[in-house]
Prior knowledge:
The protein is built from six helices and ten strands, in the order αβαβββββββααααββ. The chain has helices spanning 4-18, 41-48, 146-155, 160-165, 175-185, 198-217, and strands at 23-28, 57-59, 62-67, 70-75, 80-85, 95-101, 107-112, 118-122, 259-263, 266-270. The two termini are 34 Å apart.
Amino acid sequence: MPELPEVEIVxxxxxxxxxxxxxxxxxxxxxxxxxxxxxxxxxFAAAIAGRRIAGARRRGKYLWLPVGEDALLAHLGMSGxxxxxxxxxxxxxxxxxxxxxxxxxxDLRFTDQRTFGHLCFVPGGAELPGTIAHIAPDPLExxxxxxxxxxxxxxxRSGIKRALLxxxxxxxxxxxxxxxxLWRAGLHWARRTETLRPAEITRLLRAVRExxxxxxVAGGTSFDSLYVNVNGESGYFSRRLAVYGRAxxxxxxxxxxxxxxxxxxxxxxSCPRCQPRPRHGCW
DNA sequence: CCTGCCGCCTGCGCGC
DNA sequence: TGCGCGCAGGCGGCAG
Length: 283
């Protein structure tokens, strides 16, 4: 469940259900799930067994469970789920790693259809795993520096949507929330970053924060059963999307038909009237 | 350095 | 009905 609101919902679920519990064992059911762990699946399992989970933390779309000084790091990729449930329930086809606990209570299953997600063990990573040190703070946390972000944007020479998706610049935003934020701010996805005026950047940051916060309150965005919390439940924000996935439908602000453009082998949705295309591709 | 493009995967819905 | 294609909430690595 890719973007910040969905990952944060999962983090809260983990915090509630696994904090203070001790992992008995992890069974790695697909080697790709631990491909970042250079020493292999057996070594990963040995490092995790017997460790007590101190909580659940997040940076951008990455999650980690501190265990002593170390961390169990997770990324959900495009289709990953972390599901808590009765250990006796059937093992579904896409479970990639299966954690059981010493208290014999609810287990934890990393489930991932497309296997873009992964888990790894990071020694000394409890505070912030070194492997994700390049990920910027997200716009909802106090550590996010608006001024530094604005300066970085104006130094950069690319389209604004590309920049919003760059997790080393600002984290937590993916394809859905980039489009929704740009729509709220009235900015076209191809607008050049170096031409953005300070007031436009301020407007964009406000839009990003509103969209992420609203989605969080709604429990995240789900179009299907792939994007669920640790109990397998879907959020409701898809009902409130203004442009994402709504090509041909009326813009909620002006009624103009939403358009879809090809963008980075994917899509960019926008309102042709509220978000006019920059002239000469640069303004 | 920086920016943009490609590949990694599975499954679904669509048109032929 | 079957098959191929395009598409899907992501990221790292690499070429230019």
